[in-house]
């Protein structure tokens, strides 16, 4: 890539089931609810009623050994043993409950006040993934209309400058949009987007603020091993104010959709 090349959409992702691995796509339809098919389903703990998330690594990190993809409107879930089940079909709750050794049910409709446990990431790194650590509740999708199970905002965008600087694969940060940036583009520039408009073809996205990082990127993702630097590096270099959550390690930007459209790989990217 030449040093004068304009930033563009490098890759696009969606995650049909919360906390499972997702899929790369060439195009992504977006509106005020986020990306079509993204975080469409989640597992809900039968005992607590909370949404299962690898943010509570002690209970749910094995979700990251599963993957989900859209296929003709169905969500297909692949388990580590190579078997495949379909979200919403009879028996899928039993299969996933047995796999997780904890009773769960699948849901494609986020209930009002739905929440998950966000284990303190620093404590998890220091004490290990099986340790009993502080785990305050996080209410889901406070900045997102509709039923999806996003953490907060409709979409998450990050640059290759930030990813390459930290030395992390994009999948670990679970973005929807990765912006391919030319050499010399500074990392953590996403901090400066807040309040501005991101232009990607016909779509217009409004940057809401820096994305706070949790323990999830440090965990094993499928065949990818542990990566503590995914949290520790931004904790040292980019601990900034993130909404009203306080000063937290951040990488990337949460965004809302101001003008719906279809995002495509290769589309030029500008910030107004």
TrEMBL record:
Q: Which GO terms describe its molecular function?
A: catalytic activity; molybdenum ion binding; pyridoxal phosphate binding
Offer one Pfam family short name for this entry: MOSC
The MOSC domain extends over 114-272
User: Which superkingdom is the protein from?
Assistant: Bacteria
Q: Which InterPro entries match?
A: MoCF_Sase_C, MOCOS_middle, Pyrv_Knase-like_insert_dom_sf
**SUPFAM superfamilies for this protein:** PK beta-barrel domain-like
What is the designated name of this protein? Molybdenum cofactor biosysynthesis protein
Protein source organism? Mycolicibacterium arabiense
């Amino acid at each position: 890539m030449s040093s004068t090349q304009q930033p563009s959409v490098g890759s696009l992702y969606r995650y049909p089931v919360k906390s499972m691995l997702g899929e790369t796509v060439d195009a992504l339809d977006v509106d005020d609810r986020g990306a079509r098919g993204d975080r469409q389903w989640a597992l809900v703990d039968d005992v607590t009623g909370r949404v299962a998330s690898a943010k509570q690594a002690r209970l749910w990190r094995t979700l990251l050994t599963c993957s989900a993809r859209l296929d003709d409107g169905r969500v297909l879930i692949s388990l580590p043993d190579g078997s495949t089940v379909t979200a919403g079909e009879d028996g899928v709750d039993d299969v996933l409950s047995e796999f997780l050794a904890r009773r769960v049910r699948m849901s494609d409709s986020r209930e009002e006040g739905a929440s998950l446990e966000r284990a303190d990431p620093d404590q998890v790194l220091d004490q290990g993934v099986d340790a009993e650590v502080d785990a305050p509740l996080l209410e889901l999708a406070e900045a997102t209309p509709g039923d999806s199970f996003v953490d907060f905002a409709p979409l998450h965008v990050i640059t290759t400058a930030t990813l390459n600087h930290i030395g992390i694969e994009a999948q670990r940060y679970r973005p929807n949009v990765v912006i391919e940036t030319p050499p010399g583009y500074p990392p953590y520039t996403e901090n400066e987007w807040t309040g501005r408009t991101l232009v990607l073809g016909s779509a217009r996205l409004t940057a809401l603020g820096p994305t706070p990082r949790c323990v999830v990127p440090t965990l094993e993702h499928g065949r990818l091993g542990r990566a503590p630097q995914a949290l520790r590096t931004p904790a040292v270099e980019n601990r900034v104010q993130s909404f009203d959550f306080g000063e937290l390690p951040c990488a990337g930007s949460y965004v809302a959709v101001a003008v719906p459209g279809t995002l495509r790989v290769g589309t030029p990217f500008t910030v107004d």
